[in-house]
Design brief:
The protein is mainly α. Among the domains are: 78 residues, Four Helix Bundle (Hemerythrin (Met), subunit A) (Up-down Bundle), CATH 1.20.120; 35 residues. 78% of the residues lie in helices and 0% in strands. The chain contains seven helices and no strands. It is globular, with a radius of gyration of 20 Å. The protein starts with a helix and ends with a helix.
Length: 162
């Protein structure tokens, strides 16, 4: 059981790297489907059957069909690949180093975090709604504003010049 977990974790990581490294958006979307399916298998191995089915139905099914449809409508597969700006290349190396340091700190401090007692969980949709709209209302609203800005940015980028 544990060996399957590590195999599908490796599949998810390798496919995730392919999402970022592909030059064509359609191939990136297809690799993202592989990542989502590998995560669904991880959920099954952990005993979260409902989450696995939701992962396949909602994300790998509906959302990825939407992504591929938008990529096809924008004719993104006909664009010339760019080599990136010098600023992005200059900024990329420190960000990768910072990410690796953060992962290292998280891995090395993991046994100390296991001794912290989490607060008791209140189960049910009412308690989730109470937490979301009372304690976490600011992050919820900031997230919705970011999604709105992303949608407006996609509309502006997709608009054809007349």
């Amino acid at each position: 059981m544990a060996i399957l977990f590590y195999i599908f974790a490796a599949v998810a990581v390798i496919a995730g790297l392919n999402v970022v490294l592909q030059r064509r958006p359609v191939y990136s979307a297809l690799w993202l489907i592989v990542v989502l399916c590998a995560l669904a298998v991880e959920y099954l191995l952990l005993g979260a059957v409902f989450m696995a089915f939701i992962q396949i139905i909602v994300y790998a099914g509906a959302i990825m069909v939407l992504f591929v449809l938008v990529i096809m409508l924008l004719n993104a597969h006909h664009e010339e690949p760019t080599h990136g700006s010098q600023f992005a290349q200059w900024l990329g190396a420190p960000l990768v180093v910072a990410l690796l340091v953060e992962i290292g700190v998280a891995v090395w401090s993991w046994p100390g975090a296991a001794h912290v007692n989490p607060p008791p969980l209140r189960a049910g949709p009412k308690s989730v709604g109470d937490l979301l709209f009372h304690q976490y209302v600011l992050p919820f609203e900031v997230t919705s504003a970011l999604i709105l800005v992303a949608i407006l940015g996609a509309v502006v980028l997709a608009r054809k010049e007349s």
